[in-house]
Task: inverse folding
């Protein structure tokens, strides 16, 4: 599949965002990466408000939990409650290993929970696994207006 | 195998597909804790600990449910709906894996909260590759909700 | 107060008599007079209040705060034993001495059983001063003991809190340190990969050192976290079948066992009262060490347990490189290592964790070994039934 995928990374740590970009740059699938740094910006991007009226609809959202202004879980809850956003797969990508964070993420409808690895090799192989699965195997929901089920 | 130690619940009425899937999982050493349900009813009994599976506990869910769509008795969409609407089972990762090409099905699936939706490749080899990626992603990369990974965390600490 | 009275081992005929505040419950003025005279004769400088009923008693308690109560057994309005109850109701630990006419032995013993400090018959008043003195002495010793207990409780409390603080500090330090460290580790590694051979030769070396340092620090912090977690996490004690635990360890260490060609065996092991995860950690660390520190000979690891008096004695024996006895205690200290990192990997925290776990479970751990001839790690754990009984105590 040569079509490019739209990825929204919600993470306030520029170092991690850069690492993710680096990791995805080396992949077989092309992706366009957008980044927002807090929960409020994330929802603005997804609803195409304010500065984001031209923002692309993401095919995949990679969501950190620890965010300023509005936390990851809150963003997740909002996304999964909104009919036009809930189908977008959300990968929680966080350093938190707390079972309550993991449990809550699943309860709120996160598609999966991936722990941010501590070393480079694992970070890259984890990113590779994510993009191989979501861009290589899974069928992603259509980007356009929702099809009435 | 104790039914409380199942890691993958494979729900599919096609013997060929089940064989292929097991074969692919075996190659990744992931096959030893797979339970096979032949239809939606059996899948629901398993996940909700009823009927022949009344001895199971909600505390030990599988790490992954691989769910086909078209099945007798109760179909995949119905299983998905029930699993995702009950707080006791909602957090179990469910991956729909179907030969259906209907976009409608895919949209419904994601609307109901399926964790992922995949279309079974016709090609034998592609099918195997897909199962391998599914296994690696959902059993290794992904962290499931319940702390069934307790021992796994322990293993990391012993250098 | 009456400490001066107490310090009198003998009657003090010279010098000032110790003060004594007494409360007499007596309706017969003559009897009261006799009692006071006896006390004042050689022994005490008594300031007394005399009452005849409950109301008077209550009032006197409040205003006079006596050090001793002397009561007649048989008063018209109020029984002597009720004086005792009155004192008890107000939680007052004041010695009470019955001063009475004829009192059968049975009654006397009954009274003392019920809490009366002593009794003196009215026709043997000469005994009274000594009885009072003894009562005051006992009271004094009792109060010393109570104070000591209170001090101890306070110290235990402080110690517990200090421990909790330390553990929390270790946890927070390790936890919060991980984030910036992750950045350093990842980016030094990235630098190392991207720019190898592209900068001057020193750059490769420098970046390499930084990268290794960061990686090592990550492992150190994870180990420290694991160590501090032993105290923090509320261990959940249940009956743990050690055979099952060892089997699980065998599975987890499967690849390492296979690679080293080790033979691991265990005798029939008991069920103990412990935290299952922690017991797994202990067996895993000990077995892992045996595998790591194996010698030239094919490795044999055997685990067994024998019943001692009050404990189980577990042994994990290997035929590896062994440990010189002078280091036998050292190896259980956090981060203590006996070999360089190039000889054997690891941070030296495994045994420290084992020690912490075993000691928290009420046991001891030690090693018996000689350099070159293998090691036996031994640890004790309390027997199951008494431990369960202790744990079930409210």
Result:
């Amino acid at each position: 599949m040569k079509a490019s995928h739209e990825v929204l990374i919600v993470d306030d740590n520029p170092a991690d965002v850069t690492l993710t970009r680096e990791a995805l740059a080396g992949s077989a699938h092309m992706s366009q990466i957008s980044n927002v740094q807090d929960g409020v910006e994330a929802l603005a991007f997804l609803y195409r408000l304010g500065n984001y009226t031209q923002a692309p609809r993401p095919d995949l959202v990679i969501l950190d939990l620890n965010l300023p202004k509005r936390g990851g879980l809150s963003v997740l809850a909002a996304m999964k409650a909104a009919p036009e956003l809930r189908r977008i797969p959300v990968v929680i990508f966080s350093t938190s290993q707390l079972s309550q964070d993991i449990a809550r993420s699943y309860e709120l409808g996160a598609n999966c929970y991936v722990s941010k690895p501590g070393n480079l090799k694992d970070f890259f192989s984890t990113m590779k696994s994510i993009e191989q699965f979501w861009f290589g195997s899974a069928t992603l929901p259509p980007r356009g207006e929702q099809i009435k089920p | 195998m104790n039914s409380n130690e199942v890691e993958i619940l494979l729900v599919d009425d096609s013997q060929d597909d089940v064989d292929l899937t097991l074969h692919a999982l075996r190659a990744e050493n992931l096959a030893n804790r797979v339970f096979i349900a032949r239809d939606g009813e059996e899948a629901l009994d398993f996940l909700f600990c009823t009927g022949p599976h009344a001895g199971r506990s909600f505390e030990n869910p599988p790490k992954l449910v691989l769910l086909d769509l078209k099945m007798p008795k109760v179909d995949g969409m119905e299983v998905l709906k029930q699993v995702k609407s009950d707080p006791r089972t909602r957090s179990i990762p469910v991956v729909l894996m179907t030969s259906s090409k209907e976009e409608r099905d895919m949209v419904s699936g994601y609307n109901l909260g399926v964790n992922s939706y995949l279309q079974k490749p016709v090609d034998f080899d592609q099918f195997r590759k897909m199962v391998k990626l599914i296994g690696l992603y959902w059993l290794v990369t992904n962290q499931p909700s319940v702390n069934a990974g307790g021992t796994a965390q322990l293993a990391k600490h012993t250098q | 107060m009456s400490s001066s009275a107490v310090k009198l081992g003998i009657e003090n005929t010279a010098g000032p008599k110790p003060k004594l505040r007494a409360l007499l419950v007596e309706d017969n003025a003559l009897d009261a007079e006799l009692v006071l005279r006896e006390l004042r004769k050689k022994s005490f400088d008594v300031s007394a209040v005399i009452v005849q009923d409950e109301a008077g008693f209550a009032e006197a308690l409040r205003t006079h705060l006596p050090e001793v109560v002397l009561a007649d057994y048989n008063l018209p309005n109020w029984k002597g034993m009720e004086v005792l109850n009155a004192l008890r109701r107000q939680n007052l630990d004041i010695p009470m001495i019955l001063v009475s006419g004829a009192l059968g032995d049975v009654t006397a013993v009954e009274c003392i059983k019920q809490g009366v400090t002593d009794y003196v018959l009215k026709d043997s008043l000469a005994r009274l001063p000594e009885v009072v003195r003894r009562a005051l002495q006992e009271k004094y010793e009792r109060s010393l003991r109570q104070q000591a207990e209170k001090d101890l409780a306070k110290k235990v409390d402080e110690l517990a809190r200090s421990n909790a603080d330390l553990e929390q500090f270790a946890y927070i330090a390790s936890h919060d340190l991980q984030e910036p460290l992750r950045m350093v580790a990842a980016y030094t590694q990235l630098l190392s990969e991207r720019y190898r051979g592209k900068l001057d030769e020193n750059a490769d070396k420098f970046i390499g050192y930084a990268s290794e340092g960061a990686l090592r620090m990550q492992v150190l912090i994870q180990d420290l976290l694991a160590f501090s977690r032993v105290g923090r996490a509320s261990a959940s004690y249940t009956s743990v079948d050690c055979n099952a635990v060892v089997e699980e360890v065998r599975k987890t260490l499967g690849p390492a066992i296979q690679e080293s060609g080790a033979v691991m065996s265990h005798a029939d092991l008991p069920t103990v009262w412990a935290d299952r995860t922690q017991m797994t950690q202990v067996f895993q660390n000990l077995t892992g060490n045996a595998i790591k520190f194996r010698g030239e000979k094919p490795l044999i690891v055997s685990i067994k347990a024998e019943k001692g008096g009050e404990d189980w004695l577990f042994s994990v024996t290997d035929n590896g490189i062994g440990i010189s006895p002078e280091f036998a205690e050292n190896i259980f200290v956090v981060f203590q290592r006996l070999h360089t990192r190039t000889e054997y990997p690891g941070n030296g925290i495994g045994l420290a964790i084992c020690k912490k776990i075993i000691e928290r479970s009420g046991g001891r751990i030690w090693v018996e070994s000689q350099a070159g001839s293998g090691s036996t790690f031994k640890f004790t754990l309390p027997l199951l039934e008494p431990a369960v009984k202790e744990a079930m105590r409210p």
Observations:
- Chain C has twelve helices and twelve strands.
- Chain C touches chain A at residues 178-179, 182-183, 185-187, 189-190, 193, 215, 218 (CB under 8 Å).
- The two ends of chain C are 40 Å apart (CA to CA).
